[in-house]
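Consider the tokenized backbone below.
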């Protein structure tokens, strides 16, 4: 950072002109807060040169420029540096507390360059402060930039933290000036040219954000926030939250304003609802909300709804109608279709008040929230809304690939070596699936987070009335883009054995049904070759089926040529090549697909199926073995 053209006269003069005490500053005996002279007369070149001769080093340019205008400065930072000395006060720090040894001990075998610089700083630094709260302002000649500026470190001895680093003396003073403003922002009489300019920047940024020009708005808000200006934090947090939707943000007192509460309070509750709030649990979070003005009962109700998945983002007007339509698509797995509905309606979004510049409330919806990826968050912010005009952004690509080939890829919601199995039924609503293939009394669950759900159906010995031979599955339910209802088990850790009973016939009572089961090669317990099953039924009757174990093929019915297992499974090809070939054929021949994003990240409903294995027939036996591992 070059300081050749920096106007220290103007900068320090403005600081002095704007100076008022902090709201908590001490008063004199008459109850008055005395005007403080922040600086001194500047040092002449001879005084600066004499100091440099005494120190044996030429001082960096920005610090020399400062001394020439003010030979010292009253910084007056809360719990930090109070006074910077002048040419006659500064001297080498010389590490009186042996900090060098402490920091060198923690360097390790492969230290970073910045850590090495910090460890050596204590013995070579120039000490600037003359009054402080156990804090030190240290200029380090060993940490310099291309302009010859020395980094300035502020070490707060009472904090136990690493020093704060500033790239130059000028950067430090500019930061202290911003801190001076932040410390006084609560004073109603603290109004000056700087506060008016920063407040104007906040309003400019608000309008830019609504016009989709969020990249221009962010630096304006970041600068205003560094000055502590009202509204800057809550506006900036909305932009940052949509750029990183999985994180959390603080929306201050908006949680208590009836205008914003329906949108903001559920967003604030996202972190504790996920069980990630560790600062004293729910009581601490509820206490924070009530301290900001929210009614405790309201906060408790919102947190409960967020935790059990019943919260619904329901804004008014055309945007709200689009949200409801999108949720209906997303709750059955059509994530891309749902996003397109939201994207098309974004220009219709209306702000409930001037402090909301984006529909952040959608992030808290258990069904729609997962759709907002960082890329889609940027698209939201780049879309003009709330009546403002501007160019529409380029749409981000869809998340779901076509077909089924993605099932061969590693997925976040499937453990290694798990298989998968699925039932597709043509022309019915997904809500009918439990009645067709569910266990007795099966009902659809509330939307389930696939990363947190237990996908294992209770083992037979764990449930009364369930036979040991049964293999029930917990399946996620949805609808494909081609109109098939599906029930998918991505955690199929059971073997595709000779007792397998396809649910295709039961599922096809009112139309065509397809069952696929892919069972990967397993090496324990005992050798188990990869297996793949397909069965197709219609109106309660199986039309055709095949099962491939290794290269052994069992088949029945009139299998279409495009699905002939002898053509699809080739001995010289790998298991992956064969699986890809059959999945592509199922997509082309039958129009089958599955929504990858919804199954891995969405919030689909689930139910438990009937057994996928049949009861042993007369003369057949069944063994059930439990392995128990003992640790010694």
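A designed sequence for it:
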């Amino acid at each position: 950072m070059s300081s050749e053209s920096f106007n220290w006269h103007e900068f320090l003069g403005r600081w002095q002109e704007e100076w008022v005490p902090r709201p908590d500053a001490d008063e004199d005996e008459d109850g008055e807060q005395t005007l403080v002279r922040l600086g001194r007369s500047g040092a002449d070149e001879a005084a600066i040169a004499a100091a440099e001769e005494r120190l044996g080093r030429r001082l960096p340019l920005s610090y020399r420029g400062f001394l020439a205008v003010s030979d010292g400065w009253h910084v007056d930072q809360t719990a930090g540096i109070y006074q910077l000395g002048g040419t006659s006060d500064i001297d080498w720090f010389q590490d009186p507390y042996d900090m060098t040894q402490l920091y060198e001990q923690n360097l390790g075998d492969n230290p970073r360059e910045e850590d090495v610089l910090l460890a050596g700083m204590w013995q070579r630094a120039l000490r600037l402060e003359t009054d402080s709260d156990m804090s030190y302002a240290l200029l380090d000649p060993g940490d310099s930039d291309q302009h010859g500026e020395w980094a300035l470190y502020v070490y707060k001895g009472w904090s136990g933290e690493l020093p704060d680093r500033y790239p130059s003396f000028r950067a430090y003073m500019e930061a202290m000036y911003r801190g001076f403003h932040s410390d006084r922002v609560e004073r109603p009489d603290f109004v000056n040219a700087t506060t008016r300019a920063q407040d104007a920047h906040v309003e400019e940024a608000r309008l830019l954000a609504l016009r989709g020009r969020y990249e221009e708005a962010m630096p304006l808000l970041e600068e205003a926030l560094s000055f502590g200006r009202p509204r800057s934090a809550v506006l900036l947090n909305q932009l940052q939250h949509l750029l990183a939707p999985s994180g959390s943000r603080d929306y201050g007192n908006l949680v208590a304003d009836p205008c914003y509460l329906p949108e903001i309070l559920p967003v604030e509750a996202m972190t504790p609802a996920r069980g990630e709030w560790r600062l004293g649990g729910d009581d601490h979070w509820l206490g924070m909300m009530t301290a900001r003005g929210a009614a405790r009962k309201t906060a408790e109700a919102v947190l409960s709804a967020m935790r059990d998945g019943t919260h619904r983002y329901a804004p008014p007007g055309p945007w709200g109608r689009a949200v409801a339509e999108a949720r209906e698509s997303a709750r059955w797995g059509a994530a891309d279709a749902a996003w397109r509905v939201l994207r098309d309606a974004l220009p219709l979004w209306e702000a409930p008040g001037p402090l909301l510049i984006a529909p952040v409330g959608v992030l808290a919806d258990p069904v729609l929230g997962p759709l907002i990826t960082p890329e889609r968050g940027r698209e939201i912010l780049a879309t003009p809304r709330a009546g403002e005009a501007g160019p529409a952004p380029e749409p981000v690509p869809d998340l779901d690939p076509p077909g089924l080939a993605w099932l061969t890829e590693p997925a976040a919601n499937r453990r290694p070596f798990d298989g998968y199995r699925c039932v597709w039924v043509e022309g019915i609503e997904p809500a009918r699936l439990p009645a067709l293939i569910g266990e007795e009394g099966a009902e659809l669950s509330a939307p389930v987070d696939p990363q947190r759900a237990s996908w294992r159906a209770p083992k037979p010995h764990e449930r009364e009335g369930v036979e040991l031979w049964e293999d029930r599955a917990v399946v996620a339910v949805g609808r494909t883009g081609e109109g098939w209802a599906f029930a998918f088990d991505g955690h199929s850790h059971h073997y595709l054995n000779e007792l397998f009973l396809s649910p295709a016939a039961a599922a096809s009572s009112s139309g065509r049904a397809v069952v696929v089961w892919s069972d990967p090669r397993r090496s324990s317990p005992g050798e188990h070759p990869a297996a793949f099953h397909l069965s197709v039924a219609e109106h309660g009757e199986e039309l055709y089926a095949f099962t491939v174990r290794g290269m052994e093929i069992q088949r029945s019915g009139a299998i279409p040529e495009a699905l002939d297992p002898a053509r699809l499974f080739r001995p010289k090809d790998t298991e992956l090549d064969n699986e890809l070939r059959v999945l592509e054929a199922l997509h082309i021949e039958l129009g089958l697909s599955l929504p990858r994003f919804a199954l891995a990240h969405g919030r689909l409903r689930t139910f438990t199926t009937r057994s996928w294995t049949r009861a042993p027939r007369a003369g057949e036996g069944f063994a059930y073995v439990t392995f128990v591992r003992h640790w010694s």
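The two ends are 63 Å apart (CA to CA).
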